[in-house]
Known about the structure:
Layout: E1 5-11, E2 16-17, E3 22-27, E4 38-43, E5 63-70, H1 71-77, E6 90-97, E7 104-110, E8 115-117
Amino acid sequence: MSGGISIHCVDVARGRVAVGLRVALRRLEGDGAARGALLCEGVVGDNGLLQHPALMGEAITAGGYEVVFDVGDFYRASGGEALGPGFLERVPYHFHIKDVAQHYHLPLKFTPWGFSLFRGGA
């Protein structure tokens, strides 16, 4: 059984979860290119998480993945102009799952100018 993936997003410039941030997850091809199957896409909910059944299901297997965060669109849609001119647009992050029984938690903390993304506690 898969331990799954959780994706949690926080807009640290405003000190709140990133409700409405668009996120997409796709499988990487063997050469590391992000042209593999799109597994899920959606927007971050009120709890800061991307909720999608594929994240905890059989679709999560060993191999490479890319998650993409549409940070630029998020700030434009949520009145981010008050924070000044943005810098980030789409933030891609490549990671690899070796042991599907483990849970992979990906916390994204970001501003219009930078981000931190890592494997958090399971």
